[in-house]
Amino acid sequence: MKRTFLTLTAACSMFYATACNERESKEEKDPEVEELIQEDSLDQNTEREQLSNDHFVDTEAAFNSFNQVTAGAKAQMKELTSHYLEIKNALVASNAAAAKEAASKLSAPLDSFNATSLPAKQQNLYMEQAGAIREAANGITKAQDIETQRKHLGTLSQALYVLNKSFGTGENQLYHQYCPMANNNKGGYWLSAEKEVRNPYFGDKMLKCGKVAETL
Asked: Does the pLDDT of residue 38 top 50, yes or no?
């Protein structure tokens, strides 16, 4: 019985990995699909709906970098992104406890940052995305299992993407990565400090499923 279970598990893992590779190959050969993937990261409402129905801002404001950003705002982006990457890495490792601990660290910088010191447009954008970060972080912290935590990753990733895209990524380069099979084949994005794909939506089940959609 145990041998049969292990065989089925291995077969399922092979099936998912093959499906992901086939879909990636199809996208790479189809220039229209590639173009759509790039457009998704800019202003497509479809991707917004896949990741979250709340906390999104006007496309033009969200995805045009601000010319002048205060040192305090840059430091805030760096700290929030650092904690985000801890969460992402924990989900890659399928470590629910580590993901919960990392998510709990987001509250302090969100509470301490004085958003009113920002210019009006920057303040509005930050406050909108900070709300999304707080909501997703709370969801991850309260979740009882890794799969529930992963359901909040899309919202969290989108918020951090918008903030880094608008305020700047600071000292470290980031990679906006995409898996076509995440979220029940609707697709899902995340940020990574490494170019090599390590999928947080599936962990070791499909660790390398995905591609780099954009370099920040």
From this structure: no
- Residues 6+ away with beta carbon under 8 Å from 121: 61, 66
Give the C-alpha separation, 122 to 166, whole Å.
9
pLDDT, averaged across the chain: 77
Closest CA to 93 of 208, 20, 202, 212: 202
Q: How many CB atoms lie within 10 A of CB 131?
A: 14
Distance, in Å, from the CA atom of 92 to the CA atom of 198, rounded to the nearest integer, reads 6
Rg (CA), the chain: 18
- State the residue for tokens 């890495």: 89
Cα distance between residue 197 and residue 200, in whole Å:
9
Whole-model pTM? Answer: 0.73
Task: Please tell me the distance from the alpha carbon of residue 106 to that of residue 113, in angstroms, as a whole number.
Answer: 11
Pick the residue with more confidence: 125 or 13?
125
Token pair of 211 as six digits: 């591609």
Specify the pLDDT at position 170.
Answer: 61
